[in-house]
Amino acid sequence: MRKVYVAGGACTKYIGKFHPDFVWKRHPDFGKRENPDLQDYVRDAAIEALVDTHTTAAQVDKAFVGNFAGELFDNQGHLGASLAAADPDLAGKPIARLEGACASGGLAFAAGIDAIRAGADVVLVVGAEVQTTVSARDGANFLARAADYKRQRPIDEFTFPALFARRAKALTERTEATMEDFARASVKAYANAGRNPLAHMHAHKMTLEQASTVSDSNPTFLNNEELKPFLRVSDCSQVSDGGTALVLCSADGVARLGRKLADCSEVLACEVSTAALSADPSPLALDNSASAAKRAYAKAGVTAKEMQVAEVHDCFTVTEILMYEALGFADTGRGATLLREGATAIDGAIPVNTGGGLVGFGHPVGATGVKQVLELHRQFHSMCGDYQVGGDPTLGIAANMGGDDRTAVVTILRSAS
Amino acid sequence: MRKVYVAGGACTKYIGKFHPDFVWKRHPDFGKRENPDLQDYVRDAAIEALVDTHTTAAQVDKAFVGNFAGELFDNQGHLGASLAAADPDLAGKPIARLEGACASGGLAFAAGIDAIRAGADVVLVVGAEVQTTVSARDGANFLARAADYKRQRPIDEFTFPALFARRAKALTERTEATMEDFARASVKAYANAGRNPLAHMHAHKMTLEQASTVSDSNPTFLNNEELKPFLRVSDCSQVSDGGTALVLCSADGVARLGRKLADCSEVLACEVSTAALSADPSPLALDNSASAAKRAYAKAGVTAKEMQVAEVHDCFTVTEILMYEALGFADTGRGATLLREGATAIDGAIPVNTGGGLVGFGHPVGATGVKQVLELHRQFHSMCGDYQVGGDPTLGIAANMGGDDRTAVVTILRSAS
Fold first, then answer.
1. Which one-letter DSSP state was computed for residue B218?
2. Quick one: which of A48, A43, A118 has its CA closest to A82?
3. Are B201 and B193 in contact (CB under 8 A)?
4. For B279-325, how does the pLDDT look when each residue is reduced to its tens digit (9 = 90+)?
C-alpha cells in the first residue's frame, strides 16, 4: 500500500452573518460588491493551496471537489469543471465532485487517498460551500436533502436541528449531560474561534451565561414543542461560506514538488462508514462514526489514548459530546464530563476543535471535512498561531459526519517529521 | 497496476413520457400508484447487479453512486447513505456519490476503478436519476446547473438544447452535415431502441420523414430565433428515470465471487478529462472528449480502427456525429458521412449505441455513464438479444460527457474471454 501524505493546504476566511466581511443590507458595501460565490471559493482555496505547497497546476495528477448542495444554494453543479477553470494548467486533468451531505469534504479527501494508492502522485482536494444566498428557513429545507427527505422532512421545518435536539433531549434525560454542558461546548467553540482569524465567529463573544440562557439573542426556534427546549441558536454550527483545499502526495509526489517529508503529515488511516438513510440511529450514540473510528484505529495501529489533538464534527454542541464517546476519548455517557473537566480545551489533555469547530470556525458544508485534516496538519507543524496547542503534537484524528451519523469519515494523521 | 474487471451488472427499465409503464394523468394507474423514486432506482439497480453477478452485499468492499441532481428533481441528496439502505449488509461500507453533470455515472465508474487499483477487490457502481417529477421547463433550469449557470443560463430557457443547437448550426454551415443527417441519427436511435425492451422509446417509431420534418409532433422549441431551426424534439435525448449498476472486481475479486474471467470484461483504460466551465468550446468539435479518447487509446495500446462496438454520449443527435470524430471513427467534419453510409448501424463496421443511446434508450442522467459500460459488456458476452451485434465483438469504447464537453470519461473495454 502506497503511503499518502498531506503536503499542505489553505483555507479561505469562513464568513456569513455576524462576520464583518459579509455583505448584507446593513453592510457599508451593500450594493457595491457581492459576496464571493461558490466558484470563487473553489478557485481561491485551490490556488492558495497550490501556492502554499509550491505546487504548479501542471504538477497535479488528479483533483476532487467536496460540495453538498451547490445546485441549490448557488444554482451551480458540475464543480469539477469549475475547478478546471481555476488555472489553465488544470484543464484536461481528471476532476470529480464528491457528495455525502456534511461529509462531502471527507469523501473528497478519501477519494484523493484512493487516487494516490491507485498510482497518482499529486492530488488536489478542494472543499467548498456557499449557504448565505437564501433564508435560514429555505436553507434548512435544502439541508434536509441530506436526510431521508420524504420520511424525515415533516419532523420539523428545521429538520436537522430537530434530529439533533432529539439527541440532546435523550442525553439530558438518560445520561449525566445537561443543557449547561452543551452551553460549555459552545463557549469553548467561540473562545477558540476568537483566536482564529479565519473563523466565522472570530469577533463574536459567547459567555457561559449567554449560551445557557434562552433569550432574544439566543432563542430556541424549533416548531416541535417537545424538542424545542433542547436546542438554542448557540448550540448550532454556523451557516457559512468558504473553501479549503489540500495537496496530497505519494512519497514520489513529495519529492516531485521539492518538499521535505518533515513538512508533511502522513495519513495512517482514512475509514469511511455509511449507514442506511432509512434507519433511525440510537439518539444516545454515534454508532456509525464509532465504527469508522474503530476501524481507523485498527488500521493505523494506534489507540484513542495516544491522540494528541482532534477535529470532530460539531454540527451541534451535542454532536461534539457524542463524538468524544465515538472516538473513545470518553466512555459511553461520559462525554459531557470530559468537556466539563476541560480535557478538550486547547490546554487540555486532548484538545478538540482548536480553531473553533463548526460552531465557531464555521461550517461551509463541503469544506468542513477538508478543513479538519488541514487543522491537524497545521497543529503538527506549529502553524496555528494563537490557537497552537502546546507540546508539539504529532498524532491526531478527524471525524467528519454526514446527516444524522449516516456517512462517517475518520482520518488518523501523523506528523511525518 | 492491478487489472480491473467488469463482472456484470443490471439495468432497470428506463421510463418517462411515452413509455407505457410511466404513470401520468392519462395512465390507468394514475392516482393508484406512483412512479419509482430516486431511492427506488438506486436500490433496484444495485440489488439486480448483485443478483446478476452472484455477489452478496457482504462481499462488496466499496460502492459509488453516480447522480447529477437528485437534490433538485427528487429533493434527495446523500445517495451513498441511500445505497447503504439497499441491503443490511451494505451498511457500514464506504460509499460515496459522484457528480459531474451528465458524466456523473462515468465518474462513479472511474472512482470504482481507482478503488480497485487502491486495493479493493469487489466494488459496486450504481448510477441513477429521476427527472420526470417536474415540467420540461423546470427540468431545463435544473439541468442548466451543469453549465456555467450565471453566464450561460440567460442563453435560452432551454440552456443545453441551445448550446447544442449552436453546434448543429455550425456543423450545417461549415461541414457537410445537414439537418437530415441529424434526423438519421434519431432514426437509428429509435430503431435500435425498438429492439431493446429496457429502452424508454422501445414502443415509439421514428421515420426519417418524421425526424426530418418540423411538425406539431416534432416541433422546434428554442426561444432563440437564430438557433431555433437547428434543434427538433427528435434530436433530443429523453427525460428519463432509471438506474444501472455494475460490479467491478480485481482478479482476486473475480475469484472471490466464484466467477470465471471468461464471463468478465477487462478495463483497458478509463480516462477522465475536465475542461473549464468558464470556457466556450469550438462548436465544431468535442475537443475535451477527443483528448480523453486519445489518452485512453494510448493507455490501452489500441487504435480507433480496432473498435468493434461503441457507446457514445448522444445528448443530442449532433453530439453523436461529433463523437464519431472525437473517437477517431471519422475524420474532422466527416462524422455525418459515416452515419449516412450506415457504418454505425447495428450491422455496420462500427456499431454505435446499439441499444438506442440517450435518444432511444433514454438518459436518466447519472445512470448513463454506467449503462454505457454495461452495454459494451453485454455485447461482448452475447447478452443483447435483438440488438446483439454480429461477429462476436471483443473490444469497444464508451464516451460519457458532462455539460458542453466539460467532463469526458472515455473507457476502453475488452472481453476477458
1. B
2. A43
3. yes
4. 999 999 999 999 999 999 999 999 999 999 999 999 999 999 999 99
CA distance B188 to chain A (A): 30
Q: How far is CA B368 from each of CA A36, A151, B105, B195, B240, rounded to the nearest angstrom?
A: 33, 28, 6, 18, 10
Instruction: Give the Cα-Cα-Cα angle B368, A84, A130 (nearest 5 degrees).
Output: 90
Instruction: Quickly list DSSP for A319-378.
Output: HHHHHHHHTTSS-TT-HHHHHHTTTTSTTSSS-B-TT-HHHHT---HHHHHHHHHHHHHH
Cα–Cα distance measured from residue A345 to residue A343, given in angstroms and rounded to the nearest whole number: 6
Nearest to B405 by CA among B224, B260, B255, B284: B284
Residue A129: enclosing H or E segment and its boundaries? strand A122-129
Please tell me if residue B19 touches chain A, with a CB cutoff of 8 Å.
no
Q: Do A78 and B91 touch (CB under 8 A)?
A: no
Give the model's pLDDT for residue B365.
98
Determine the 3-state secondary structure of A215 from DSSP: strand
Is A363 a residue of the active site?
Answer: yes
pLDDT tens-place string over residues B63-79: 999 999 999 999 999 99
For residue B390, count CB atoms less than 10 angstroms from its CB and return exposed for 0-12, middle for 13-18, buried for 19 or more: exposed
pLDDT at residue A417, rounded to an integer: 73
ipTM of model: 0.97
Q: Among residues 30-49 of chain A, which lie with CB inside 8 Å of chain B?
A: 37, 39
Question: What are the extents of the domains in chain A?
Answer: 268-415
Q: Check B273 against A92: CB less than 8 A apart.
A: yes
- A76, A277, A405, best to mutate vs chain B, most B CBs in 10 Å: A277
Query: Which residues of A are less than 8 Å from B279 in CB distance?
Result: 85, 91
Task: Tell me the three cell numbers of residue B115.
Answer: 478503488
Asked if B277 and A39 come within 8 Å (Cβ–Cβ), the reply is yes
Residue A394 pLDDT exceeds 80: yes
Q: Which CATH superfamily is domain B268-415 in?
A: Thiolase/Chalcone synthase (3.40.47.10)
Handedness of CA B227, B233, B237, B241 (dihedral sign): positive
A19 is a catalytic site residue: no
Backbone phi, then psi, for B222, in 5-degree steps?
-70, 150
Closest residue by Cα to residue B100 from B165, B38, B147: B147
